[in-house]
Amino acid sequence: MKVSILGSGTSIGVPEIGCNCSVCTSSDARDRRLRCSGLVEVDGIRILIDCGPDFRQQMLTLNDYRPIDAVLITHEHYDHVGGIDDLRAFCRFRDIPVFAESDTADAIRQRIPYCFREHLYPGVPHITLTDILPGCPFTVQDLQGNTVDIMPFRIMHGQLPIVGYRIGRFAWITDMLTMPAESYGLLRGVEALVINALRHKPHPAHQTVEQALDNISRIGPRRAWLIHFSHEVGLHAAEEATLPAHVRLAYDGLQLTL
């Protein structure tokens, strides 16, 4: 399995417009963070997790134009779905299956209704929306018939129920503040984990770096990477030096081989 971190930033990205802090003016490329997204490749199948407004830029940077076999959406917020229209370039290979909870799927239909009309005008992305339920696994398939099972699980973005995803022994969590007990059970045996950590100061909807480290200890992966940072988390080099050896800060363009 290979995981490409397409974006590691929070909803407004880093640098933040109008900010002159040490992070936003840093010359370290790891301190420049697009909105959060990842590309998972397993058994020949390519799975995009979230498709935010920086998707086009992220895929041009990745420079790996091959089919996308599924898109997994964690929730409806713009920084996680704002790039769905740009999937059109990948619809040259196939209609793209998008998986989301029903409320999120409805929000996507309302945001880009022109993609779901009976008669589509030329150039719109050809996507299919499939409803999922936390705790109920589903299967995605590539053009060659290879399949992989996905387990969605419930996490809480403040008071908003959203989903994380487990693929084999890998799991992706973003925008989480808390997680119900049953979801910890679904993560038993995970060896590699990507998980959000907004900043050190508490936030009403996102966990802090310290809360993320507590959850990493509870889940027990061999390796973990933190994502979804604001500029308040601090400079990449300085912050990473404070972390346990098995926990690293992710950054845009990082490629993990698991």
Radius of gyration: 17 Å
Number of helices: 6
Total number of distinct structural domains: 1
For the terminal residues, how far apart are their CA atoms?
Answer: 5 Å
User: What is the fold named in CATH at topology level?
Assistant: Metallo-beta-lactamase, Chain A
- Count the beta strands: 14
Can you give the helix content as a percent range? Answer: 10-25%
Question: What is the mean predicted local confidence, pLDDT?
Answer: 97
Q: What's the helix-strand series? A: EEEHEHEHEEEEEHEHEHEE
Helix and strand topology:
Elements: E1 2-7, E2 37-42, E3 45-49, H1 55-62, E4 70-72, H2 78-81, E5 96-100, H3 102-111, E6 127-131, E7 138-141, E8 147-157, E9 160-167, E10 170-172, H4 181-186, E11 192-196, H5 209-219, E12 223-227, H6 236-240, E13 247-249, E14 255-257
Parallel strand pairs: 3-4, 4-5, 5-6, 10-11, 11-12, 12-13
Antiparallel strand pairs: 1-2, 1-14, 2-3, 7-8, 8-9, 9-10
